[in-house]
Specification:
Number of helices: 3
Strand order of the largest sheet: 1-2
Structural class: alpha+beta
Order of helices and strands: EHEHEEH
Strand content: 5-15%
Helix content: 25-40%
Number of domains: 2
Largest sheet: 2 strands, antiparallel
Shape: rod-shaped
């Protein structure tokens, strides 16, 4: 649809009377409010904005990366004072309470056992 000839006459020009088109009104020197041109601009903008939105959404879907697994925790809360301490700590630095070691942390920090020497 073309709304370019939709206008409202605010003040009559040198030649009075109803004007058939916007060009006739401007030729007569009438002051007009060009609603049709504004509506055409808004509709054109909305169409272009929607197309750009679809384009950006498609590009983002193509660039989507797989979810990265969260890294293993490096800190744990102290069960007594609830402050955060490193996972390998044996004592809380805030309340000096003894902390339980996770099984995997003990296995990593414990030195390997040597078999007894044969006589």
């Amino acid at each position: 649809m073309d709304f370019s000839n939709l206008f409202v006459v605010l003040r009559q020009g040198a030649v009075g009377g109803p004007y058939a088109t916007l060009a006739d009104a401007q030729a007569a020197g009438a002051v007009t409010l060009n609603l049709g041109l504004f509506i055409n601009a808004v509709v054109s903008f909305m169409i272009v904005a929607f197309v750009v939105f679809l384009l950006v959404r498609t590009i983002n879907r193509l660039k989507r990366e797989e979810a990265v697994a969260p890294a293993s925790p490096t800190e744990q809360p102290c069960p007594y004072c609830l402050m955060v301490v490193p996972i390998k700590a044996t004592r809380c630095g805030h309340c000096t309470a003894m902390l339980d070691q996770p099984a995997e942390a003990e296995a990593i920090t414990a030195p390997p056992q040597m078999p007894p020497a044969k006589p």
